[in-house]
Amino acid sequence: MTDPIQHLNRHMHRYRRVCQWLVLAVLVGVPLLNTSGIHAVAGTLYSFSIGQLTVMDPALVIQGILLTGQFAFPWLIAAAVPFLLAAFLGKVFCSWMCPFNLLGEFAQKIGEKCLPARTRVRFTNPPAYRYWVIFAGILVIMTILGVPLMTYLSMPGLISGQLSDWIVQNSVGIEIVLVGILLVLEVGTRSRFWCKYICPVGATLALAMHRRTLRVQYFPQKCQACRVRGSHKPCSNACPFHLDPRRADIYPYCMNCGECVVVCRQWGRALVLGFTSHGRTKIAVGESASKTERSKKEVNNE
Amino acid sequence: MIWRLLKKLANLHPPLRPPGALPEAVFQRLCIRCRKCAQVCPYGTIRMTHGEWGLKMGTPVIYPRQVPCYLCLKCPAVCPTDALEPITEMAEVKMGTATINTAGCLPYNGVLCRACYERCPIYREAITLKEEIYPVVHPEKCVGCGICENVCPTEPASIRVFSRHFED
Q1: For residues B151 and A174, what is the distance between their CA atoms, to the nearest angstrom?
Q2: Does B13 touch chain A if contact means CB atoms closer than 8 Å?
Q3: Which pLDDT score is estimated for A121?
């Protein structure tokens, strides 16, 4: 029997898809249970409650504080579960649970299959400040206008909310148009721009990440530099955000979906999802040998 | 300036909110549109606004002519942001007030009718009968559940419930 971590790494994609579809099934199942009279579980991806335990999207807690200037202690407890999850595992909510990500991944695939291939795809990691500037901009606009913007920009919330409305009262709101427009744009651009840059839910979860959070580890001495059959960088090609996971600066964009890790298993196994005590190994391709020595030690430790 | 004017226009006739709702302006900021109140409502009273642009998108409202609120008070308990204050007593509910349009109301036009008076959950307090015939609403007792509007036999209803948050 193989090591469970190895097993998970190998079948990451399958497990992730199962998890995504399960979450979608729960989002359909909860309103169905509610309409048949069971109210022990209720809610959407904005806020969910099981019995007395209430879980709330941390982005909406920030929204509540900014819009009302007040703070309620129950919000802290409600936001703790997703926040701690992100502190340990990074933005796995986005990659393993969010229904918009599931639709977005399919939209991207449709775009890649049906539209003519783009002549030039850039696999560069955008600077981290861009992510935070957009997030800060959303927060500032929200505070100035006094509008619950996070609620309307939260795609998982909109999708789960409309699903609930459709089942509970047989109608859907016009917010669903926004989801549709974004999906069409995802098919057209194939860039996953919403999840990558804009989504405030993911940005709030990225706030929780720190040095010891689960990260994509890169071991350059194993890297084959993948130039077989003219295709290079299978890891970047597999990445839904077209990041280059061989570099350290994929955060805060990376959502730990593990697609690059799964692909890299067919080559050099240079990419592994894991925890380290001192952050990610900060070695890019072709850097000095002394740093490579350090990462070799890490391999031995594992 | 224009934004404020638009906001004022949008809030001119605030819809009837579920029991315990805060004043309209605060409510729109605090409500995260999580749908839990509609999900736990056993009568299908609470509807999410659909087909409406603006800040009312996806917020809970009650259309009493379709289904009134039966004051079971399950919804305030599940609200995660207390946009619906966690009230437990029927008398604490102040959603709106009923107003009678005497031009259409049957007793005021010579036909005996006690529909609203008899169905009112604040029985003999919120609606009383003047001279044993004419229904009269007492706003300080009325909770705004809308059962009277729901049972009114005239079309359109001669007793209607409006939100209390008119000037917020």
Answers
A1: 31
A2: no
A3: 62
